[in-house]
Design brief:
CATH superfamily of the largest domain: Creatinase/methionine aminopeptidase superfamily
CATH class of the largest domain: Alpha Beta
Structural class: alpha+beta
CATH topology of the largest domain: Creatine Amidinohydrolase
CATH architecture of the largest domain: Alpha-Beta Complex
Number of domains: 2
Largest sheet: 6 strands, mixed
Low-confidence stretches: none
Strand order of the largest sheet: 4-3-2-1-5-6
Number of strands: 17
Helix content: 25-40%
Strand content: 15-25%
């Protein structure tokens, strides 16, 4: 049974679900992490809320936490740390002191208060200590290790200057007198985190259902939207109205040639009849997301040129999916859709429609897949874990695209247009291949045109 009532006052700082026991899920993850360690390990949450580094700005988004720390604790609050020690099977949570004045401004926070067990009750971590005891605790444990031993921390060897790297340097300074070395726990952590458990798959599927409903409502009302902003506001409203979380990322609404800017953010121009509009959108449920792209005709019907190009992109996704299975890496199969698109442009556009094209890139505009998990673009920073071999439970995107200037003669009429098209689904890796958990979100030419009538 889910203890919803105890989490409610802390809904912003402890991420829980009505569908399963969140406290038990985080406990299961910590136990799995402990089994992978052969020395104690420290995970650092973000040190301060976003925006507070600057005197002139303070911002708040619901999800602010270091994803690794979130994955193991569910705590979405700055200034917290977790120590796991496999030798004693201990879990120790370090939190800031309880601050009623800050709660007066910003709501409930998890904080240390002598004699109070509220943090343990919420998180399931029984050993809770004030954060100013962290370094002394780490040093005391290090002194008990044999000479030449090491401890773990979560940081990235190839990615510097984030809060994890700064914490690493803080630990190195503290550990120097003990002679104990420091080792990254990132690889061990990613091996546990990339495959989704049943609970996270449930959240991901719930996010797909919300996204599907929102997109269908937008299609039905498409004729009412005059600008990118109006369309985006409606899509965001419909997604957030049905969800328990924020948007997965700021929604992209790019009409006409604007779709040739991959991360177009202006979103303030008029929608023009006869053009396409590219949508990249998703919602967060719990700590999981949907990540969907669709490209639709503003007027409700594709022109012959638009239809030809759209079908090439859609078919390239199907070609790519023939190669998606356990045992391969995303890097290994990454060129499949781009090679297919280049081949089909020559066959269908140049030869079949006496057309021409000028792409805005050389063969490959962007990666066709990324992992999806605690982050919308999951994977180790700097590499996105593209060398990782796919395993059942991993969730990846499939998002081929086409961006450039195109010309074709179809039915005796010549069409010219600068076009950006992207079609994105989310694929859950299974024992035998994959399951497209976005399959219900409309994407064929016939379905889109029918739903926009």
């Amino acid at each position: 049974m889910v203890e919803k009532s105890i989490y409610k006052p802390y809904s912003q700082v402890f991420i829980s679900s009505d569908r399963y026991n969140s406290k038990n899920l985080y406990k299961k993850r910590r136990k799995a992490m402990l089994k992978e360690l052969d020395s104690f390990c420290v995970f650092a949450g973000i040190p301060m809320d976003p925006g507070t580094e600057e005197a002139y700005v303070q911002i708040w988004n619901k999800m602010v936490q270091e994803p690794a720390f979130m994955f193991l604790t569910g705590i979405n609050q700055a200034g917290c740390y977790l120590l796991l020690d496999p030798r004693t099977d201990e879990e120790i949570l370090f939190v800031p002191p309880k601050d009623p004045f800050k709660e007066f401004w910003n709501g409930k926070r998890l904080g240390f208060l002598e004699g109070d067990n509220e943090v343990a009750r919420i998180t399931g971590i029984q050993d809770v200590r004030p954060v100013d005891e962290l370094i002394d605790t780490v040093v005391a444990r290090a002194k008990k290790l044999p000479k030449g031993s090491f401890a773990y921390a979560y940081y990235f060897e190839k990615f510097k200057e984030d809060h994890n790297d700064r914490f690493r340097h803080q630990l190195l300074k503290a550990l120097k007198p003990t002679g104990i070395k420091l080792k990254s726990a990132a690889a061990l952590h990613w091996a546990l985190r990339l495959p989704l458990e049943a609970e996270r798959i449930m959240d991901a599927e719930a996010a797909q259902a919300v996204t599907n409903n929102a997109f269908r409502k937008v299609l039905a009302e498409m004729k009412n939207f005059k600008t990118e902003r109006e369309l985006g506001l409606k899509l965001d409203y419909e997604m957030q109205r049905e969800s328990d979380g924020d948007l997965a990322f700021p929604t992209i609404v790019a009409g006409g040639a604007n779709a040739c800017c991959l991360h177009y953010v202006k979103k303030d121009e008029p929608l023009k009849a006869g053009e396409l509009v590219l949508l990249d959108f998703g919602i967060r449920i719990g700590s999981l997301h949907s990540d969907i792209s669709r490209t639709i005709p503003v007027s409700g019907k594709f022109s012959p040129l638009q239809k030809l190009l759209y079908q090439i992109v859609l078919d390239s996704a199907l070609e790519y999916q023939k190669h998606v299975r356990p045992g391969v890496s995303l890097k290994e199969i990454g060129m499949v859709p781009w090679d297919y698109i280049m081949q089909e442009l020559e066959t269908r556009l140049v030869k079949g429609a006496k057309g021409s094209y000028k792409l805005l890139y050389d063969k490959r505009p962007h990666g066709v897949s990324h992992f999806i998990g605690e982050q919308i673009h999951e994977g180790e920073p700097g590499t996105r874990s593209l060398d990782t071999v796919l395993r059942p439970g991993m969730l990846i995107s499939c998002e081929p695209g086409l961006y450039g200037e195109f010309k074709a003669t179809i039915g005796g009429k010549t069409y010219r247009e600068k076009i950006g098209i992207r079609i994105e689904d989310d694929l859950l890796i299974t024992k035998d291949g994959f399951r497209n958990i976005s399959k219900d979100i409309p994407k064929t030419v016939d379905d889109l045109e029918r739903l926009m009538k």
